[in-house]
Amino acid sequence: MPQPPKRATVHDIAAAAGVSRGTVSRVLNGGYVSAEARAAIEAAILEVGYVPNTAARTLKMRRSQAVGFVALEPHSLFLDDPNIGAIMLGANAALSLADHQMVSLVVESARDMERVGRYLSGGFVDGAIVVSARTHDPIIRVISDLRLPAAFVGHPPDLERTIPYVGIDNQGSARAVTARLAATGRRRIGMIAAALDRDSGIDRLAGFRAALGATFDPELVAEVPHYDYGSGVKGMRLLLERDPAIDGVFAASDAIAAGALETLREAGRTVPGDVGLVGFDDSTWAVRTQPQLSTVHQPAKEIGAVAAQLILRQLSGEQPTPAGQLLPTPVIWRDSA
Amino acid sequence: MPQPPKRATVHDIAAAAGVSRGTVSRVLNGGYVSAEARAAIEAAILEVGYVPNTAARTLKMRRSQAVGFVALEPHSLFLDDPNIGAIMLGANAALSLADHQMVSLVVESARDMERVGRYLSGGFVDGAIVVSARTHDPIIRVISDLRLPAAFVGHPPDLERTIPYVGIDNQGSARAVTARLAATGRRRIGMIAAALDRDSGIDRLAGFRAALGATFDPELVAEVPHYDYGSGVKGMRLLLERDPAIDGVFAASDAIAAGALETLREAGRTVPGDVGLVGFDDSTWAVRTQPQLSTVHQPAKEIGAVAAQLILRQLSGEQPTPAGQLLPTPVIWRDSA
DNA sequence: TTGAAAGCGATACCAT
DNA sequence: ATGGTATCGCTTTCAA
């Protein structure tokens, strides 16, 4: 095992400049140091080609200036969920402003889960943003055992009431779009409900049900596993089978809506003529379909930014307010309903 | 600034078990230690709730067991480029097997660029996978100055001939599909060429041109900035304007092809009847359009895996072979051409 | 203002 | 087999 090449240290600078390491550290960080000493040291830094060793700094300071970003989606998150990327970008921008490095960690296997747990606990990060955690995810334990500053995106698992979170009002928005579908004269309104193992999926279904009240018919809910196009195709077929007279559909995501739209077209139904269709996410899907989708806007970047603030605030000493905050989700009415 | 809570150390374990730190380290890592000492230490570990401090370990070992993943795409990479995600997943899987943590770093601003440079040089990672680097990207300097083990995805910048890389034969595949378009009787073949500021874009155009030889007509090349849907729409409009009789189109990506397809439909052209259309990437786009796209398959996961191997090999002492390797890209013939 | 020295947490060498 | 000690690179008292 070859060692990496030896690199210049504070010690080397001190030797080259003829001062002590303390003085070098003072010019590096800031503190009282004479003009001549400063000049000599700055020259020495260039001369020896100094590169600070952040790992050593982290050890001493107990601060890495890095924040982990962990998405616990069920597989290949980056491939189809458009929100994750935007949330990452939002979080990164906010952390960047505060001079913190965001490092994102992929969790695909049990092995990953364990390794990431070790990574988070090893001092490589000062905090962690966790997306789509479920109660039994081991990461949760690591975070709460270590009291690692953290923020959840989406409802936190019930067990964990001490970690702040940020999310959207899934239930409220679902209720709003469903009500509008009803208000525009749709009588047989169905839903393609996905991801019922996580809060976003559960809440969207709850909102749909609440909006319909007594007229809610469980037959008109097609349950599918994921928020993707293929699930939309499957879900819509199911719905058409169960009730050919269906005239309104709330799809739990834009990708699902796109799949449903294609299926409706194949079945000879027009949208919004025969069937009113609403999606969720306001992703690129929504404007690429024909007709363009009415949908619920998710402020993904802001969500990321708020999550970052939640971490930053804890790092600067504030108590983690166990409460969460829900960001507004305007409904965008386009052409599909 | 509150310090993180104090955590148990090897020292604490040693005290609790009544042995020296050396012995504790031996049970932690492996070495000669008596059964009774081992038992006492293992009990002590649980008792004090020991969590290893990886930062300290990194400092001592000069190894972090982490590898950086840096994508230098022009903005919001995760949002529309389907390949990046798959490459990441492939790299992560390979690194995971070798018990290395992949940490991916977003670069969106100049500030990000600088901070990521510091991060890479600070000892937080043992190596770095770099996607889509351009010659002037500061990261390149950091890596080569530090001799940080690295691997490029895509052609490395010309200046840098010492870093191994992995990619695909963009030029060869472009030539193959274009030739086929010609072989099936298309006479007026155009291309929507994107990302001409990077090798993938340049090479695909070069392949197209080579295949056509003397019949190449620069008028039939529409240049667009990105590999996205919107660019496909714009590019196709341009092409139709320049030559309404166009009967073959090679799109530099599936997203572009999808945009072109929609535009052709709006212009009243049938595919593949009036116009033969080929994409690139074999992404989900390709199977969602109607008709499904003929396209070039990119083995994104393998690319990630090979990049990871390239790093791992250097970490275990092999000299970085400056050569690169190109992975095969089968052409998938579906319905659009 | 500066230097000397202690210490962050872990590992490895050298005696014993 | 085990304990003591030096060391990784950096920051931070404490004196001078």
UniProtKB/TrEMBL annotation, chains A, B:
<dbReference type="InterPro" id="IPR028082">
    <property type="entry name" value="Peripla_BP_I"/>
</dbReference>
<feature type="domain" description="HTH lacI-type">
    <location>
        <begin position="8"/>
        <end position="61"/>
    </location>
</feature>
<dbReference type="InterPro" id="IPR046335">
    <property type="entry name" value="LacI/GalR-like_sensor"/>
</dbReference>
<keyword id="KW-0804">Transcription</keyword>
<keyword id="KW-0238">DNA-binding</keyword>
<dbReference type="Pfam" id="PF00356">
    <property type="entry name" value="LacI"/>
</dbReference>
<keyword id="KW-0805">Transcription regulation</keyword>
<protein>
    <submittedName>
        <fullName>LacI family DNA-binding transcriptional regulator</fullName>
    </submittedName>
</protein>
<dbReference type="GO" id="GO:0003677">
    <property type="term" value="F:DNA binding"/>
</dbReference>
<dbReference type="Pfam" id="PF13377">
    <property type="entry name" value="Peripla_BP_3"/>
</dbReference>
<dbReference type="InterPro" id="IPR000843">
    <property type="entry name" value="HTH_LacI"/>
</dbReference>
<dbReference type="InterPro" id="IPR010982">
    <property type="entry name" value="Lambda_DNA-bd_dom_sf"/>
</dbReference>
